[in-house]
Amino acid sequence: MKLLEQFARTRRWDTEERQVLEQVQRVADEVIAPNAEHTDRTSDFPWENVRTINELGLNMLFVPEQFGGLGMSYALYLEVVSIISEACASTGIIYATNFHGMKPLIQYGNDEQRARLLPRIAEGGLGALAITETTAGSDATDMKTRFTPEGDDIIVQGSKIFISNGDVADLYLLFGKWSTIEDPRRSISVLILEKGTPGFEVVSKERKMGHNGSSTCGLAFDGCRVPRANLLGEPGDGLKILLASLNKSRPSVAAHALGIARAAFKDMVAYGNERVQGVSVYSTSKAISLRWRIWPVSY
Q1: CA angle 222-99-114, nearest 5°?
Q2: Is residue 165 located within the same domain as residue 74?
Q3: Number of domains in the chain
Q4: CB atoms within 10 A of CB 135
Q5: Percent of the chain at pLDDT above 90?
Q6: What's the confidence (pLDDT) of residue 268?
Q7: Same-domain check for residues 106 and 165
Q8: 174/160 Cα distance (integer angstroms)
């Protein structure tokens, strides 16, 4: 445990950030962690955990102040992800997916879009990022979902798979191809689809080996009519927005993994200190010797 404490002391948080982290650790210990076993065993969505996160205002961390948030640092957000994920891996994914889905709106949305949509997230709404299709994973240029302009609306036709928060999100950052642009890369566009849009349906929910409280869903869009005012940027801007989204979400995934690894390490140490093998405590037995080396990491 001393290694983790030593590493934590190397982080240079200011007073306000330390106060946030202390409150996050408190709710992680008192609410989120006690619910983790039930959440994973039953696959129930952890609404109590989400309500606790919202009561603490954690969605506000990454939303700019002018749109109802606090606009705090990306590093602080990553640390919050790791603390929540250490307590409950499923809840960590749910919280991080809000950021993954809404960061492009923060970065590329116009003022009207951000003023209209971001307060819903700051107040506790859930977000989702919808990219993956049966034919388009790492190669997003092969996606089949189509956006067809029609007056002041965009008609959405297609489907997505493996979408985190797919059945619970309030706002979906949805990628597809603009129907009048032929080039497969230049046609990729992105819009915000709102919960309750006619023609939108959750068609499946994956059964997984872990992270069972986090919904992973298949979605269908059958003639969904979305206001053109929900288009981010211009038709064809989607690929650069997609890549920027992934650049910010990958460290977030790493923070999630760090939290899980920290929980596993603490469980291992606790087990080693409690188990008796022969006449000695397992962790002090000469049969095992753990040596750890901490390599410096630059950011």
Answers
A1: 75
A2: no
A3: 2
A4: 10
A5: 79
A6: 84
A7: no
A8: 9
